[in-house]
């Protein structure tokens, strides 16, 4: 299958999931908010949809791995401690930015939220700077 077709299909599915969540429950499909609602609030009144959303987010990658014999994304090119540190920094960033790329980038921009537009621009610029620094200043090359 063509890579652009898989990417397009993935984007359509992400958009569809966001629309369905907003239309059915009136909730924004921000992953950090969904996970944060489960993890930090013991009295969450609506854990069912949060768990279902997260299972639907994770289960397809496991199914792909079992059916195809691989995840389709290749092996990590950095060590587990670096990935853990990166995950921690992403978590801190989502707290500082009051949301993540899915909440701001997919849902917020679709609602024309100025805060989400600015947040997404900051996310994108930070990613570009990170790639520049890791590839060109530290000489880390990725296939």
Automatic annotation (TrEMBL):
Domain of life of the source: Bacteria
Q: Which residues cross the membrane?
A: 12-39, 51-73, 79-96, 117-138
Keyword terms, alphabetized:
Cell inner membrane, Cell membrane, Membrane, Transmembrane, Transmembrane helix, Transport
Q: Which GO terms describe its cellular component?
A: plasma membrane
Q: What is the topology of this protein in the membrane according to its UniProt annotation? A: Multi-pass membrane protein
Q: Which Pfam families match?
A: Sulf_transp
User: What are the boundaries of the signal sequence?
Assistant: none
Where in or outside the cell it occurs: the entry states:
Cell inner membrane
Record InterPro entries: Sulf_transp_TsuA/YedE
Per its UniProt record, what PANTHER family does this chain match? INNER MEMBRANE PROTEIN YEDE, SULPHUR TRANSPORT DOMAIN-CONTAINING PROTEIN
The Swiss-Prot or TrEMBL record describes its family as follows: Belongs to the TsuA/YedE (TC 9.B.102) family.
Its recorded name reads: YeeE/YedE family protein
Species assigned in the record: Dyella psychrodurans
